[in-house]
Design a protein that fits this description.
By secondary structure, the protein is mainly α. The chain is built from 7 helices and 2 strands, in the order αααββαααα. The protein has a two-stranded antiparallel ribbon.
Length: about 190
């Protein structure tokens, strides 16, 4: 999830303070994407620059503190952030966007295997085997975690764990595919160079 769109999604529910956005973003993502508060304010500055949010000062001269939850202490010079009409349109475009036929994002596992292939069959098979072992351990740990927290975690945390399990399973299938094609692919390349 892009931080920009995540903050807009939270602001679509009403004005928020910067630190409030940080904590709500982390809660909404099941705690797996912690944000640095500086990253939140930098992103909010860009969103304001682009006309997607509006800053509203709050303090003694501006008594509107309705965005603050009871546990937030509102001090002088604090600001709330509110989504604009353009921000709502940008968020709507993000909700509607679908994956395209672009190359996959740069993924460390994919890059590692592709580079290992360039080092030869034996090296590639060692890398694939090592990565498979680590992924199997990760998958087992996530499945145990999922069973242990079946009813205790938030929905977001359960969904994140499910996504991590699915990702590990997909990565394992991809490694199996790499291993199956590796010897065949290198035999074809060697014949072409003769």
């Amino acid at each position: 999830m892009a931080v920009r769109e995540g903050l807009l999604a939270l602001l679509s529910e009403g004005p928020r303070y910067g630190y409030q956005l940080k904590t709500e973003f982390e809660a909404a993502t099941g705690g797996v994407w912690p944000l640095n508060v500086g990253q939140v304010y930098t992103t909010l500055d860009r969103l304001e620059r682009d006309g997607l949010v509006q800053v509203r000062p709050v303090g003694p001269d501006r008594p509107d503190r309705s965005a603050a939850p009871a546990e937030v202490v509102v001090g002088p010079g604090q600001k709330t952030y509110a989504i604009t009409v353009d921000g709502i349109a940008a968020l709507g475009a993000w909700w509607e966007a679908v994956p395209t036929d672009d190359p996959p994002p740069r993924d460390e596992l994919m890059l590692k295997v592709l580079m290992a292939i360039e080092q030869g069959d034996d090296h590639a098979l060692r890398v694939i085997t090592r990565q498979r072992s680590v992924l199997l351990s990760l998958l087992q740990a996530k499945r145990r975690e999922r069973r242990a927290a079946a009813n205790n975690d938030t929905l977001a945390a359960r969904l994140v764990t499910d996504a991590l399990v699915a990702r590990a399973e997909a990565d394992l299938r991809w490694l199996d595919t790499c291993e199956a094609h590796l010897p065949q692919q290198h035999r074809t390349v060697r014949k072409a160079h003769r």
